[in-house]
Request: fold
Amino acid sequence: MVKKQPKKSDQNELLENPEVIAERIVPGEDFLKKNSKILGGVVAVVIALIGGILFFQYNTQKQNEKAKVEMFQAVYFFEQDSVDFALNGDGINKGFLSIVENYPRTDAANLSHLYIGSIFLSQKKFEDALTHLEEFSSDDYLVQSKAFSLMGDAQLELGKIDEAIALYTKAARTNENKFMSPKYLAKLAVAQEEAGKVEDAIKTYAEIEEKYYESFEFAAARKHKARLEGLAAK
Reply:
């Protein structure tokens, strides 16, 4: 009995039969001939786009390095409490405001927004402080929590207590630690009391008392917690 030969799969036929290969290739060649201009244009756009991205990254990196150098003196002025020079420069060296204007989208400009915000906050320019602090962002949780706290200070001064509470909460909950978290919790409790949320303030002071008993804020937290508990009992 003659056995039936198994039917070749399309894949095997494609690999073994030159005629089948030719049949598959010809339509592709016709498509390329008919649409060569369109495909050429698409390739050109893709190449231009990739080139643009690479140039943007290279240019941003160069700008960032230059901005970091110019920022050095502004940071020095800030640390010496020469905040006007820190903001505006001294006529020779640039200040933070010039850096954010001339080197946008750089790491130096990003950090400059934090410095500018803290300076404006100290000068009671709360709206201006918020504008710059909201432009700042960082992967460093300690620095980002500090920014949240400063924004909370500005909102509290502007009478926007609910916004301040939300920001102090973010500051306290971002990378909780024994060094900064009790400070932010203390600010949060003050804002909660000012908003009339006495029970919330008691809980916040209790958290400092229970979790951060070695902190500077511990003694004040115990005192204010007892005071608020006395008020709540009346």
